[in-house]
Amino acid sequence: MNVLTLLGSPRKRGNTATAIGWFEADLKSRGHQVERVNIVDHRVNGCLGCGKCLGVSDRPGCVQKDDAVGIFERMMAADKVVYATPLYCWGFSSQMKALIDRHFCLVKGYGTSEYKSFVDGKPMALLVTCAGPVEGNADLIQTLFHRVNDYGKSKVIGKYVIPFCTTPDALGNEAKGIVEKLRTDVLA
User: Fold this and answer.
1) What's the number of domains the chain is made of?
2) Max Cα-Cα span within the chain
3) Model confidence over 14-38: pLDDT tens digits?
4) What average pLDDT does this structure show over 151-159?
5) How far are the Cα atoms of 3, 102, 110, 171 from residue 121, in angstroms, in the given order?
6) Rounded to an integer, what distance in angstroms lies between the CA atom of residue 164 and that of residue 84?
7) Beta strand pairing status for 123-129 and 155-162?
8) CATH at 177
9) Per DSSP, what are the bridge partners of residue 33?
């Protein structure tokens, strides 16, 4: 299986990178192909809202000359995609949010009989690390992830939140258990 992970943390060795690293290492040890995209290593501009992508029907066309479309092509080629982000202001990190806003170009004909998506049926999962609890803190990001996937006609495998993160070396058995549940569900 080919799994793409999208790391939306500006900290390449932070809590989110550590947790998704466990997931990736486990899958690789089982013979699966895993590719990570560190969004901070790519130039992903915010969506311009120009609608030019709507005029392109055979690919996720965008007038911007950055790395977003290349990342989308990797998503389309993968068997499954895992988004990994720290929680920022009850939502995605700004790096991940820019890419999510650009998901607009993955869908054509929304609300019409011609409605299609380049990630239709694609299994997707979300891994979130946060400093506080899940309830009243990491609930909105899960709703947003579900709505983004409804729009893209993709399939949500699951949403996994590691609460009370402080430092990567303090991530304990609870965090490892959540990552193990992610792995189990991705491999199912």
Assistant:
1) 1
2) 51
3) 999 999 999 999 999 999 999 999 9
4) 97
5) 15, 19, 16, 33
6) 16
7) parallel
8) 3.40.50.360
9) 2
